[in-house]
Specification:
It is a single chain. This protein is mostly beta strands and 82 residues long. It is 0% helix and 15% strand. The chain has no helices and 2 strands. The chain has a two-stranded antiparallel ribbon. The chain is elongated and about 80 Å long.
């Protein structure tokens, strides 16, 4: 059996729970120059929540392929057997 390496760019996983670790940062906002405190799981934020609100994750630019049509059940007045 041959082996090969493929590059996966996009994939879908089932819903699951994940534990993330957040930190509270004290910093000066770059836009309003006010000392502020913000909890985040990523790197140190640059802006306070009034200047830049947390945003939802961006949607992928790649469109999803069309799904195959589902089989339909038709009801008729006659049985197949006769």
């Amino acid at each position: 059996m041959q082996t090969k390496i493929i590059q996966v760019k996009e994939y879908t996983v089932r819903a699951h729970k994940r534990q993330i670790h957040t930190r509270t940062f004290n910093f000066v906002c770059q836009q309003c120059q006010q000392p502020t405190q913000r909890e985040t799981f990523g790197p140190r934020p640059l802006y306070c929540e009034q200047c830049r609100r947390p945003q939802a994750p961006k949607k992928s630019a790649v469109p999803l392929k069309k799904r195959k049509p589902r089989a339909m059940n038709y009801k008729s007045g006659k049985d197949i057997a006769g």
